[in-house]
Fold these 2 entries.
Entry 1:
Amino acid sequence: MTQTLLEFRNIVKRFGGVTALDDFSMRMGQGEILGLIGPNGSGKTTSFNVLTGIYPATAGQVLFEGRDITNAAARAVYEAGIVRTFQRSRLCLPLSIYDNIMIGDTARLTGSLWSNLISRKRLQGQIDTSYRLARDLVGGFSGHLADRMDQPVGALPMIERRRIEICRALISGPRLLLLDEPSAGMTHDETHQLMDDILAVRARGEGLSIIIVEHEMGVIERITDRCIVLSYGRKIAEGTYAEVAADAEVQNAYLGAD
Amino acid sequence: MTDLPISSTAAAARPWAAGAAVIVTAGVYAWALLMAEETWQVTGLLVLAVAAVLAALKTGFARRLHQDWAASEPRLNRLAFAALIVLIFALSDAHFALLMVATTLLYFTAAMGLNIQFGFAGMANFAGAAFFGAGAYTAAVLGTVTAVPPLLTLAIGGAVALVLSLPLLLPILRTTGHYAAVVTIAFGVLFRTFLEVNEILGGPQGLMVAPMRLFGWDFNSAPVIGSYEMSFYVNYALLAAALAGLVFVLVRRLERSWIGLHMDAVRLDETAAACFGVPVARIKLTAFLLGNAILGVSGALYGMMISFIAPASFTFSDSLLLVSIVLLGGLGSLWGSAVAAAIVVLLPEKLQLLQEYRFLLFSILVMLVLLFRPDGILPRPLRTFFASRRAGK
Ligand SMILES: Nc1ncnc2c1ncn2[C@@H]1O[C@H](COP(=O)(O)OP(=O)(O)O)[C@@H](O)[C@H]1O
Ligand SMILES: [Mg+2]
């Protein structure tokens, strides 16, 4: 494996009596695309939530580029270069495409009241730059969306919303992208398109690593380097897609869940 | 068929023409309504307004106006301000009408402060009248006890409101939604009780407030041009217009800045915002303090204008009145707040019959608006960061 980017050490997460993550350890390398799979309720989303500072871990450690980021605040996790999409799309529906994507670029924007309200030269420069950036990013996904940057996101179909969510995550030039069921609510063809887009982004971006949670096994097979399978919060298998698909315990977990 | 291209060229050349016509009409209408004394005149004018608004909505004129306004916004905003000044001079000796204009402007200003909280950052504040009152009491105390220049007193009124909101920050940042709302309600009640039992602040009887004074000019003396004497409320109406204009520019800039964007993000999805590095606590703090400071400044000028204040003017119902302006106008919509402030101030004064039913009227009005126009009378438009440089171009 290449240099370690992210490491979970014996992560436990309990919600009352429910153990959502049970002694979960894993490592991922720089530049890797890791698939995180498992039946519903197996702890995939929870591991994203623990990693991004939404929930504190009950026990265990998270290391990112060698730094301990266990229970870091969401903002600190973002500043470290980890961004995500959400299983149920969480865009700001009344805001424009542009606004939504800019929310992902907080690190670059000036926060002082003075330069936001009074002396707005610098703000204007930032707006021009970020607008170009957002437009290029969206244009890379779908040309016609880039012409609709000032339309509200709420009027767009699901696939476009997913794309915008991914653009919002990518605009800050992150190190690690977490995708939580990006194909949910989309047709087979749309999913296929979206995966092409994601691969294209990665081909362009320098050293972007991805963890993808996905139910569509075709997607996992096609884009991941390696997979980790969770069942009831425990890691039950790890390896290439072919390896984990052939694993007896994995087959059992999926059959048992269905 | 042939004149179609011509008229559309004309519209493209002067996209502000419709907006300008609406501003002039609104100015004349406001004058007529303010001067109307007979019940039938008032009723007629109100029916006319309702009919005109419905017609504008039905014919699509409202939507076009909305677009045109967005396209030539700086010019139309300046024109609206000019129309307001003309209106004030046109009313120059109508004492009571001017008082209503100035009151509307100060309520509008207060509502803009409240809009930063409710409309942008999504934070409930049901103690608006308390912060407004804090400004008014500051003006009363400073005006009688010290020689602080009254213009500075306005700023200090804002500062006092800001300082008073500090103890609320912790509970408000810790709690969300209903709990935060209850915290502000409790504060409002506490504030009023404090005023009532505090002898130094005049107890339930309240205090006199010294008038505004600018560069030696006493605002309580009538301006005279030649042999023509205007109402002294012209002074206050003009200063209130200047204050409203200043706050309007400031709040607009706030809306069209990263801070404003982050306020929207926090309102719409706090968790997602935090995942993209939005400093949620700092944004809420900014909204709360800035909003209350604006409430305090407008309250200070209000106190000077009405020259006598008492705890009974800053009750929970008055806070609700301010909130209802924000809701009626449309959350986050500045022009909406302007229209709603005018409705809330003028309707009960003009329809004396309804005086006793003020709150019933507002409740019904708010419910009707929320039912049929959930985004308010003039819904907040999408953000454009710089009016002169439209996004997408
Ligand atoms: N906020 C929460 N409160 C209580 N239980 C939760 C919460 N989030 C997740 N869980 C529980 O944790 C388990 C794992 O959920 P999740 O991580 O969402 O699964 P997956 O994403 O793999 O479908 C489930 O049993 C779920 O009910
Ligand atoms: Mg999930």
Note: The CA atoms of residues 140 and 209 of chain B lie 4 Å apart.
Entry 2:
Amino acid sequence: MEGFDFPSGILRPHVDLTSWVWFSGVMPIQVKVMERRPRTFWEQSYLPEIIRGLSTTISHLLKHLLRLEKMPTYEYPEQTKPIPEDYRGEHRLMLRPDDTIRCTACMLCATACPAECIEIIAAENPNPDVEKYPSVYTINLLRCVFCGLCVEACPCDAIRMDTQKRDMAGMSREEFILDINYLMKNHPEGKSPVSIAL
Amino acid sequence: MPKIKVDNIETTVPDGINLIEAAKLVGKAVPHYCYHSQLSVAGNCRMCLVEIEKQPKLQIACNTKVQEGMSFFTESPKVKEAQQFVLEFILVNHPIDCPVCDQAGECKLQQYYMKYDARPSRFEETKVHKEKAIELGPNVMLDMERCILCSRCVRFCKEIAEEDQLCFSQRGDHTMLTTFPDRPLDNPYSVNTVDICPVGALTSKDFRFQQRVWFLKGVETICTGCATGCNVRMDHNQGKVFRLVPRDNEAVNEAWMCDEGRLTYKPVNAENRLRHPLVKTAEGLREVRMETALEKFGELLKNISGHVLLGIGSAEFTNEDNYALIRFLQENFPVPHLAYTAREVEYPSQDDYLISADKNPNRAGVTAMGMKPLASEDRKYQCLIGLGPISESTLTALSFEKDHKVIVFATHREASLDYADLVFPVATFAELTGTMVNRQGRVQMLRPAFAPPGESKTVWEILSQAARLMSRAKPAYTAPEQVFADLAELVPAFKGLNYELIGKQGALLTKQ
Ligand code: SF4
Ligand code: SF4
Ligand code: SF4
Ligand code: SF4
Ligand code: FES
């Protein structure tokens, strides 16, 4: 390569994805030193905390025994608890208005993913303005920690976790490895919604 | 030797160098796009502006030579302001495609913007859009929008490849990099333009979209494509090699390498790599564990004496591997016959710059060890131990006893291995520490990117293990340094050399 490289190292998208940081092999780690204070005699005996904990348990038990109708238990699966709109459920890959995939295979999601569970293979897009698209896009849900960093990372609203799907059960490991076809059709209507975000 | 001051640091520098190189000598970096130490000065990007004492206007460092008593500043407020303006100007029509741009992460525009500008854009007009994904030649793609018109690629073709294949057409912000009609960018060094392009305008077809650069890990090694041994950095990730890029070595390849050599990593990733030893059975070759194969090796060699034993080294294997074979045979089977084979190419590419017609990376090494090319003799052999697959023509040229045995060390499972009784899987150049000698007689280091697949190992490791199993004292190597130390002690041409001395830039063999 060239005579001397300056500055050395490689730029890498920062985890908070608002900037690029210098990356030279070691990520900077921030250290906060916590002060330790010795336990007092009462704390050391653990008794007050045990009494406090047990009284909470017993008070709830009595409350529910006396007023059964107020018990906050959902009879899942017949009855489901409503979940918030921004709940991070199973992923889906969004579409463009012409029903092609939005994802440009930039791999920023795979870079941000702490579980390294996103596999992308890029291919040349027939439209040169789009540059590339993923020929393979696989999410391994068994490794996924549902942190949502992939959604944060995506510069073009191509991946979302707004399916509200949280009941994930299966008989084999393979069922949890979501491929590009599944991810593009992850919607009750059979295809993922369209996004026209910039 | 003029005495100068860089940012008030006094220093003496060689005559005739420019201010970028002078600043570098005191550890100061002057940002630059169009300047490249191996190319002529174009002075068109204006990124390298510095403030010279007693000169009212800023000057470009790349085109200003040092003079006695000169004092200049690389970080004064005036310089900093100019750097911001230059970057803002370059970015006016830049698409800022970073998320999909292959250069992102190693892009000079990104790096300098972060370091010297980092201001939001003030540009409100519409950007000039240009063509994307243009095929310039068989190996290079161009994204015209991203080009910052530094002309490095143009100068490279003209001055280094000596084929004037690129030029600019149109004017102003419509300037385009282009090839001549029906004359693609097809010189044998074309991918170097991709390396020196400071932005993501030029991309190599082979590496394009394969990997984001921040996932890659680099190791400094050499290209094994021909006898030149260009110094390279091998970029790899997760047990796969992704690209070779040249690294500087004034004595060997300056800062370049050929396009053919860049593809020599492909066999490392191939599907048909040998992972386990193979033993001949009635149904053909069968995979076995290394222990079984080593036992078999001992069995095959049990009643063989030196004069019916042929050892074939290879000009494609390292010095360590060849030398271990020599030592193994000479120590344990007195007076074996030793020779080497080399890869022959019918119509080899060749020029008088880097590309050598000899496609063997280590012919000078095996020759220095005293091995001769394999020639047919009237000796009848009972056993053959060879590095690399033995070609059919070689086998027919030799005469063997009935029931002879063939043992080979190979990297890949090839159909033509069927003649072998025992095949050991060995590491490729990307998986070992070792040395090779190029056509100038320069000993150069190979460094491993990752561990070899399956049970494969280097030849010297396998032979040392085999010797131990056969209760022979030698060779008993446990590290490549030991093999090389032995070699340096016993072969006069290698006298006085060691890995430290060879280092990153290589060291010459002693002249005989
Ligand atoms: S939600 Fe899952 S896939 Fe997305 S970044 Fe987090 S771990 Fe990775
Ligand atoms: S989903 Fe978004 S972040 Fe991930 S590769 Fe596709 S475009 Fe990039
Ligand atoms: S050339 Fe550099 S700045 Fe331009 S899009 Fe590519 S990475 Fe970004
Ligand atoms: S393609 Fe790259 S090297 Fe060539 S002029 Fe443009 S920016 Fe410079
Ligand atoms: S490096 Fe000096 S003008 Fe481009």
Note: The radius of gyration of chain A is 24 Å.
